[in-house]
């Protein structure tokens, strides 16, 4: 922090470090909440008996790492007597000094054992719970967690849909839902995937054996409670002095419409004598009143809109009809300006009757039977793939702790262990995570010696798409956690931004944020901040608001701002959607401005990936005409369009590989075209001859290099993208064109590298990615644009306290006309999204330290587009500074070409290009490198080709098992590997039948190792364990490179060198066989030992040969 004025919240910050109190702290952007958390942690360290009694939970690895590092840094500064930079740091060091005194008194030695500081992400904490109680968690053995589980959801959806031809209630439910979706299997599959992503929100409500009748009663009661809550609201705001006039006008209009047999809901007011009650039975009367007083847009009806359609027929001067009409028009004038009443009444018109129609219930009942089936299939996929998602880990952790009335031993152990819990970023908590925290604090009471410290900022809750619910923060703030009352603390100081930025943010968002907080809709009130920096006077916010849309003009103005910024200051362009960056990225490229992107450009859109994909498809399928045409135009071939047409235009039937080998046809092309094709054809022919004989990755990568692929791209990012693609090819086990689907899906979900070239590039990222970061200069383009709307779910749900609302989507043939219950829940969820958009804008604006720039445009009506960030700003803030697009505001030089986009040129290698010669070896004084295996291995080879290749594959698997751990390699998984092993053998040149036969032998050999006590010892976890351990050393003046199959240090501190031998033994003495093998391979393993000694290994070393096929073992020392 820099020099500051008087801090406005010193009292609250001091209270937060009271070790005996429990608090919930609202910490707006820039308020120094991480510092406060660290100070709290240090205070608690000075009071506990063990550091493990304190648990700090964050939501990202970065946040956890930063918090732990800053705790350690503070203790190191306290220990070294370092001078603090400001009063805040002085306070931190003072608390760290007391923590160090406790550390010395208790002998913790925390600076040497930082792992005792329990600062964990919520996901890692859940994983630790499931590891401790694998059976109770329901996961069994420990499974890996997938960062991109959509493939698992898709497989579960496919398996669910496979029930279509079966019998039983589950299959009946599937068929009914499928008919509801117009028999679109693809559409239903997508909806199921979406539901599986958020299953932790709804699963607990639809499983548990509740009968249909009981479930329907419970759900309809929830709808009734919602309806009556909203009716109580409108009843409370409806002006009492206007009620009698409203009833009289309503009765008159209702009587007229009923007499005319009108279907209008206003007819329901016929005979009304008093204001409707706030109960569900009077809903139709309230809706009639709303339709009478308001237009369809929710605005008060104007006098000119009073006519016979709403129950006021024309009359003559002085007669009853005219008098009633005039009275109603006068009533409408009284309502003018009462916007809160209009808003409440308008909401009543959208409320559903508290009962499902028979059709709705039929579909909803089927969904409540079908969705648990999809979850069961997902759990099958998890078990088979030995991979789960984060939701599964969280739910399993809760399961492992047990219910409130029957806590597990682990829960009781936690209850005794943790005395203090700190939670960061609580505004981004999901229901599952909140349930876990409630479980950890169950049984806690006020003043019991345990404390809970929650920090967050509901104004920065922006992760609803990850199931975060800001309402959880609001509820805990209002009601506390379990039996613990939490004292609310509000921080106000902003140490980050210029006071001018803070004042602008206060002015804009105090008006935009809702006045009343509501946990159901996510409505959060605004809390002002106060800028406390003394070094940053002056304006800090500049707006560029255009009279119409011109993305090119906006991009050029962004460039102008970027060029004007001080050298050395950080700068970021933040957008709501990646699409808002397209024009800016092109402008940056054209202007040669260095930039770094954060997950902006899909990997598959990069030219290098497009060319590699075409190359792979062509290798796998010579008849893939589109792929071959793409190669002819690729940078490494670079054939002109005229030559491509000359080669292919008159023959649409022959494969292009055949055309490329037609010398007569080639001779008709241009001289340069002939040269390019001959070079390309030569490289491709060599690769085509190797198909099926070498691994696909090696073939693809080697061909790309030979064609000059790396020379076509100058940036490190392109090379990294290519390496990512090659790695995916390896993982996919591709062997023909039919197996490309998995690879394409993976590529679609990855993003390209854009790391920037200089030390201070312009950073481009989405606002969500910027959460928790800060920059000197923040540029927000596209504030006049709105983002896309979310898809409609197959089932909408909403939790309101103890109530649950559920409704099925409308039939596909009635798209957009869902039932009232579905639309009501959708409306509430849409309101949640609108409030989150507002908070997203706040997060973006508060990232700036020095300057904030906003760029946006108005629509043709000179108004902000509804749903855009600009629509959230009071027009009075910018209406005097609107930029008219007719103004010549930038030079032709800034515009590039006439269209404002950079000119496109064909990038290709020059004809006759040749790759560079290999560099000379570095002279070290040592002799040429030798492979230790070749120089000291046996002088003869027992094995044939099949045995050698199978041995290679088995070696790979044994090393993989040692790396991943035995607990992940059960018999079920091993059996599933047979297909992959056969693929590996096919890549080595074996036919399908040979590959399958050899794979069976390989799986059997590995299975023996996994079943053997000796094999499990070799492959199990050990200190300093390594598989395929590479060691290089200079021995006798020569560089020797060795690769040791398995090496580790046992419990007796002995270093082991183990070499796998995959051969078998038939006939004769096994003892004699092993003795002969020892004699044969001893020189090779002695060389391994010599290399390790050269590398500094001083412990005792023992060597061994391990034969998994026969469980053979021979060892020696010296």
UniProtKB/TrEMBL annotation:
Record's protein name: DNA 3'-5' helicase
Organism classification, top ranks? unclassified sequences, metagenomes, ecological metagenomes
Task: Check the record and name the InterPro entries matching this protein.
Answer: DNA_helicase_UvrD-like_C, DNA_helicase_UvrD/REP, P-loop_NTPase, PDDEXK-like_dom_sf, PDDEXK_AddAB-type, UvrD-like_ATP-bd
Q: Which residues form the UvrD-like helicase ATP-binding domain?
A: 6-498
Q: Where is the UvrD-like helicase C-terminal domain?
A: 499-772
What molecular function terms (GO) are annotated for this protein?
A: 3'-5' DNA helicase activity; ATP binding; ATP hydrolysis activity; DNA binding; exonuclease activity
Q: What species was this sequence derived from? A: hydrothermal vent metagenome
Q: Which UniProt keywords apply?
A: ATP-binding, DNA damage, DNA repair, DNA-binding, Exonuclease, Helicase, Hydrolase, Isomerase, Nuclease, Nucleotide-binding
Signal peptide positions (record): none
């Amino acid at each position: 922090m820099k020099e500051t004025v008087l801090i406005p919240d010193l009292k609250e910050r001091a209270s937060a470090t009271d070790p005996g109190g429990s608090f919930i702290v609202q910490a707006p952007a820039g308020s120094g909440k991480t510092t406060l958390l660290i100070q709290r942690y240090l205070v608690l360290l000075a009071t506990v008996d063990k550091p493990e009694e304190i648990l700090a939970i964050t939501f990202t690895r970065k946040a956890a790492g930063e918090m732990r590092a800053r705790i350690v840094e503070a203790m190191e500064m306290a220990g070294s007597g370092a001078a603090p930079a400001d009063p805040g740091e002085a306070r931190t060091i003072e608390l760290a000094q007391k923590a160090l005194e406790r550390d010395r008194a208790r002998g913790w030695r925390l600076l040497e054992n930082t792992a005792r500081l329990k600062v964990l992400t919520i996901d890692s904490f859940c994983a630790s719970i499931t590891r401790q109680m694998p059976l109770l968690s329901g996961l069994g053995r420990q499974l890996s967690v997938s960062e991109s589980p959509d493939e698992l959801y898709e497989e579960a959806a496919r398996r669910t849909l496979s029930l279509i031809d079966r019998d039983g209630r589950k299959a009946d439910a599937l068929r009914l839902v499928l008919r509801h979706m117009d028999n679109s299997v693809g559409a239903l599959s997508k909806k199921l995937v979406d539901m599986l992503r958020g299953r932790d929100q709804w699963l607990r409500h639809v499983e548990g054996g509740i009968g249909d009748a009981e479930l329907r009663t419970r759900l309809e009661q929830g709808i009734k409670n919602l309806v009556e809550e909203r009716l109580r609201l409108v009843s409370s705001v409806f002006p009492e002095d206007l009620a009698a006039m409203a009833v009289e006008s309503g009765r008159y209009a209702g009587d007229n419409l009923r007499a005319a047999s009108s279907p209008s809901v206003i007819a329901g007011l016929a005979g009304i004598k008093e204001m409707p009650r706030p109960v569900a039975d009077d809903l139709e009367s309230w809706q009639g009143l709303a339709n009478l007083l308001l237009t369809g847009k929710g605005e008060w009806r104007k006098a000119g809109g009073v006519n016979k359609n709403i129950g006021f027929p024309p009359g003559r001067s002085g007669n009853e009809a005219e008098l009633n009409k005039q009275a109603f028009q006068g009533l409408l004038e009284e309502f003018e300006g009462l916007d809160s009443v209009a808003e409440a009444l308008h909401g009543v018109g959208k409320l559903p009757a508290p009962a499902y129609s028979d059709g709705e219930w039929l579909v909803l009942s089927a969904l409540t039977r079908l969705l648990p089936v999809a979850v069961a299939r997902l759990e099958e996929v998890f078990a088979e793939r030995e991979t789960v998602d984060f939701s599964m880990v969280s739910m399993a952790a809760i399961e492992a702790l047990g219910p409130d009335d029957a806590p597990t031993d682990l829960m009781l152990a936690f209850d005794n262990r943790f005395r203090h819990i700190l939670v960061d970023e609580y505004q981004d908590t999901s229901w599952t995570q909140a349930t876990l925290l409630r479980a950890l604090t169950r049984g806690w009471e006020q003043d019991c010696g345990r404390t809970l410290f929650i920090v967050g900022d509901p104004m920065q809750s922006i992760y609803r798409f990850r199931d975060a619910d800001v309402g959880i923060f609001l509820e805990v703030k209002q009601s506390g956690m379990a039996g613990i009352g939490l004292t609310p603390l509000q921080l106000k100081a902003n140490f980050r931004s210029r006071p001018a930025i803070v004042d602008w943010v206060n002015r804009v968002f105090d008006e935009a944020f809702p006045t009343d907080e509501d946990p159901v809709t996510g409505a959060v009130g605004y809390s002002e901040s106060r800028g406390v920096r003394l070094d940053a006077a002056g304006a800090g916010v500049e707006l560029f608001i255009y009279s119409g849309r011109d993305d090119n003009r906006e991009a050029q103005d962004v460039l102008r701002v970027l060029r004007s910024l001080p050298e050395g200051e950080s700068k970021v362009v933040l957008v709501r959607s990646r699409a808002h960056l397209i024009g800016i990225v092109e402008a940056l490229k054209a202007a040669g401005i260095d930039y770094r992107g954060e997950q902006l450009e899909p990997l598959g859109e990069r030219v290098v990936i497009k060319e590699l994909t075409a190359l792979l498809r062509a290798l796998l399928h010579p008849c893939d005409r589109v792929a071959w045409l793409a190669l002819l135009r690729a940078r490494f071939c670079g054939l002109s369009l005229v030559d491509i047409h000359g080669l292919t235009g008159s023959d649409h039937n022959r494969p292009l590989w055949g055309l490329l080998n037609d010398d007569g046809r080639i001779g008709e092309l241009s001289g340069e075209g002939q040269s390019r094709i001959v070079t390309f054809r030569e490289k491709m022919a060599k690769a085509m001859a190797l198909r099926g004989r070498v691994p696909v990755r090696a073939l693809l990568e080697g061909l790309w290099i030979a064609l000059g692929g790396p020379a076509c791209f100058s940036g490190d990012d392109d090379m990294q993208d290519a390496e990512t693609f090659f790695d995916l090819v390896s993982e996919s086990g591709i062997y023909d064109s039919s197996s490309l689907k998995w690879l394409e899906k993976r590529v679609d979900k990855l993003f390209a590298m854009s790391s920037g070239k200089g030390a201070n590039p312009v950073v481009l990222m989405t606002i969500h990615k910027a959460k928790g970061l800060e920059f000197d200069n923040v540029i927000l383009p596209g504030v006049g644009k709105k983002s896309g709307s979310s898809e409609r779910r197959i089932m909408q749900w909403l939790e309101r306290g103890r109530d649950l609302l559920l409704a099925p989507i409308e039939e596909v043939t009635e798209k957009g006309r869902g039932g009232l219950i579905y639309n009501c829940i959708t409306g509430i969820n849409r309101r949640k999204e609108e409030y989150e958009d507002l908070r997203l804008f706040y997060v973006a604006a508060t990232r700036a330290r020095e300057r904030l720039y906003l760029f946006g445009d108005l629509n043709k009506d000179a108004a902000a587009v509804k749903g855009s960030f600009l629509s959230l700003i009071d027009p009075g803030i910018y209406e005097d500074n609107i930029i008219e697009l007719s103004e010549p505001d930038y030079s032709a030089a800034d515009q590039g070409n006439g269209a404002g986009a950079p000119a496109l040129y064909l990038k290709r290698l020059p004809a006759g290009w040749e790759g560079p010669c290999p560099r000379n070896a570095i002279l070290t004084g040592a002799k040429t490198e030798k492979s230790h295996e070749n120089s000291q291995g046996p002088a003869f080879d027992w094995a044939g080709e099949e045995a050698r290749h199978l041995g290679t594959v088995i070696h790979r698997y044994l090393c993989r098992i040692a790396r991943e751990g035995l607990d992940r390699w059960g018999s079920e998984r091993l059996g599933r590997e047979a297909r992959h092993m056969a693929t590996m053998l096919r890549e080595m040149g074996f036919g399908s039948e040979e590959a399958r036969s050899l794979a069976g032998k390989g799986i059997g050999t590995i299975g023996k190792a996994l079943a053997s006590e000796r094999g499990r010892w070799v492959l199990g976890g050990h200190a300093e364990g390594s598989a395929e351990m590479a060691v290089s050393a200079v021995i006798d003046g020569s560089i020797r490179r060795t690769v040791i199959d398995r090496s580790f240090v046992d419990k007796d501190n002995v270093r082991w060198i183990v070499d796998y031998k995959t051969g078998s033994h038939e006939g004769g003495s096994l003892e004699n066989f092993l003795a002969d093998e020892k004699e044969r391979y001893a020189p090779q393993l002695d060389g391994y030992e010599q290399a390790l000694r050269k590398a500094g290994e001083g412990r005792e070393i023992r060597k061994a040969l391990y034969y998994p096929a026969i469980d053979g073992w021979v060892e020696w020392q010296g």
